[in-house]
Amino acid sequence: MVLGLQVVERDPGSILAVRLGSLGWAVVTTVEAVLKSRLGKVAGMATAEEQEALNQALKAALDLD
Question: Which pick of 4, 26, 41, 60 has the fewest CB atoms within 10 Å?
Answer without folding.
Answer: 41
